[in-house]
Amino acid sequence: MSEKNDGANRDATKRSARERLQVERERQNARDRRRRTLIVSAAVVGVLGLAAVVGLIAANTGKDGSGKDGPVVAPSGATGKDALAIRTGKDEAKSTLTVWEDFRCPACKSFEDNYRDTIHDLEAKGLLKVDYHLVTLIDGNMGGSGSLKGANAAACAQDAGKFSAYHDVLFQNQPQEVDDAYGKNAKLLELAGKVDGLDTPAFRSCVEDGTHNSWVAKSHEAFRAGQFRGTPTVLLDGKDIFSDKGNPLTPQKLRERVEAAAGASGGSGAPKAAGASKAAGKASPSAGATSGTTPGATPGARASRASAAPSKTPANRGSDGAAED
């Protein structure tokens, strides 16, 4: 009898152990299922979150100045190949000055400060027209977006018929090269207040939406394709007159060349070209300035050189195909 009880007890113990094991397995399986569910749920949430972020970025492309993939919208009156130039002066002017500039470039500011009055005077006399091409060289070299946003804002000013005045204001108030102040739309809108009639809802919308960002990017690509030495690049009737070390350009020399061209064609200003040139030379405090610098200029005011994708160019050119200054 005792043996039978012992056998029963052993069977009961075995069943109990098997049952406990089965229960534990079921619990473990349940835990595994919950864990898998949580992992899948987390993955789904992560994908949805990523999609939301990508959607937000896409929604804001062009509004923060970083997006350059939108439609190419040229500013009003843009001219030249692919409408990549903004022209000032009269179309019938005999001479054409072509200027490639970056609103963050110290050497571009130096050029503008030295030649601004001479250029405006020649434009007013109908002797010179200027084709401005805007590039983003400093953004690529130093980081930031001030070159792009500044150029877009200038193109927006062109839409409003205020390009020349706003262009001058941007260079007159240019921040230090390492300070990406023009990367902030608020600063660009603040400076628009210095130009009568420019700060309008239409101008603000154009600046904040980055309306001309893709156009600016296309202009910079044309600069790279041209393998220019850097910024500023200044051409008079197609000839690079700014990088000639043997015969450095001055405001007086620019005036003489433009007036001589007008005289050769019988244009206005020919009879007094020589006298006007001498007067301009005496009046201009920068008449003796060398190409790309001002007297006492810091090294940062030297012509900015491209440093983007390497190209097969001579050793005296920058890595973007731009010849060293």
Notable traits:
about 325 residues, alpha+beta
Strand content: 5-15%
Write the H/E string, N to C.
Answer: HEEHEHHHHHHEEHH
Tell me roughly what share of residues is in helical segments: 40-55%
For the CA atoms, what is the radius of gyration?
Answer: 33 Å
Q: How are the strands ordered across the major sheet?
A: 1-3-2-4-5
Mean pLDDT: 77
Kindly report how far apart the N and C termini lie.
113 Å
Uncertain runs? 47-67, 268-301, 307-325
The description of the largest β-sheet is: 5 strands, mixed
Number of strands: 5
- Which word captures the global form? elongated
- Number of distinct helices: 10
Briefly note the structural class of the backbone: alpha+beta
Describe the 3D structure.
Mean pLDDT is 77; it is low at 47-67, 268-301 and 307-325. A hairpin with a 2-residue loop joins strand 4 (233-236) and strand 5. Helices cover 50% and strands 7% of the residues. Helix 2 packs parallel to helix 9 (251-264) and helix 4 crosses helix 8 (213-225). The protein is α+β, with helices and mostly antiparallel strands. The chain starts with a helix and ends in a 42-residue tail after the last helix.
